Amino acid sequence: MSTEKNSSRGRQQGSSRPNSKRSSNSQRSGEGKPGQGLKKRPSKFEKKAPAKVIKTDADGIRLNKYISNSGICSRREADVLIAAGSAMVNGKVITEMGYKVQLTDEVRFDGSLINPETKRYILLNKPKNYITTMDDERGRKTVMELVHMATKERIYPVGRLDRNTTGLLMFTNDGEIAKKLTHPKHNVRKLYHASLDRKLAIKDLQTLSSGDFSVEGKKVFIDDVAFVEGESKTEVGIEIHSGRNRIVRKIFESLGYKVVKLDRVIFAGMTKKNIQRGHWRHLTEQEVNNLKML
């Protein structure tokens, strides 16, 4: 298994500067245009312009605007579709024009979850000693510190890698895609390069390849397992689509091996190519389309 930056002066020459003293005298003597230099007194009968009201979304955002901001259609088209019963808020069909939703509400259109933010998809090559969480009360380094400059939208890690596991970790604010990537039924490909504390015995390799393997009383679906090409027998590639916590380490521990290093080298068909450790990139349009087709 193979694993892998004579300006001009503002006036033309020869033009003369205006005589500021003469101009000042002209204004005082009343020369020039009538009323020049005189300030008009406001009349007590004049109406003051009303103060400009700045609208905010503090009280919610209109449902048609929410749908439009999600990129589905225009506001006018959204009104028609809302009236037809295509929109749901927190599980309830909404047909009322002008209905307002909060950003914390779950809004679905034709059954699909929508979000008014621009969808973002980030792929990180995670280094060691970072935990996969939004924040940590114990002050440990988190993966969010590595991607905080990637986008202004609030993104979340898809699944998790434990503190000492390196490799590919995806972030997004697209709930539908995140759900697809973490559910076993979609068979999302995850390929790991495991370095063991000793050579993997052929009989144990066969056991892992048998298709009938359980950890902690639960069956584990191992799609493929093989020695890494050109490396010693301590280097093993293992492909799974299970999302259980620390599952790869537990697989080898159940056979008496210790995983010294673990690196996720492929995730959902994407590789670490051109992403240095600790760096990230945005997914291409084609990659996003591929994920939507899962």
Describe the structure.
The chain has 294 residues and is an alpha+beta fold. The protein has 3 domains: 52 residues, Structural Genomics Hypothetical 15.5 Kd Protein In mrcA-pckA Intergenic Region, Chain A (Roll); 85 residues, Pseudouridine synthase I, catalytic domain, N-terminal subdomain (Alpha-Beta Plaits, 2-Layer Sandwich), CATH 3.30.70.580; 79 residues, Alpha-Beta Plaits, CATH 3.30.70. Strands 7, 8, 9, 10, 13, 14, 15, 16 and 17 form a 9-stranded mixed β-sheet that branches. The two termini are 24 Å apart.
Key terms:
Structural Genomics Hypothetical 15.5 Kd Protein In mrcA-pckA Intergenic Region, Chain A, elongated, four-stranded antiparallel β-sheet, nine-stranded mixed β-sheet, Alpha-Beta Plaits, alpha+beta, 294 residues, 8 helices
Number of domains: 3
Query: How many individual β-strands?
Result: 17
Residue runs with pLDDT of under 50 for 5 or more positions: 5-38, 43-57
H/E element string? Answer: HEHHEEEEEEHEEHEHEEEEHEEEH
Which fold name corresponds to the CATH topology of the largest domain? Alpha-Beta Plaits
> Helix/strand/pairing class, anyone?
alpha+beta
CATH class of the largest domain: Alpha Beta
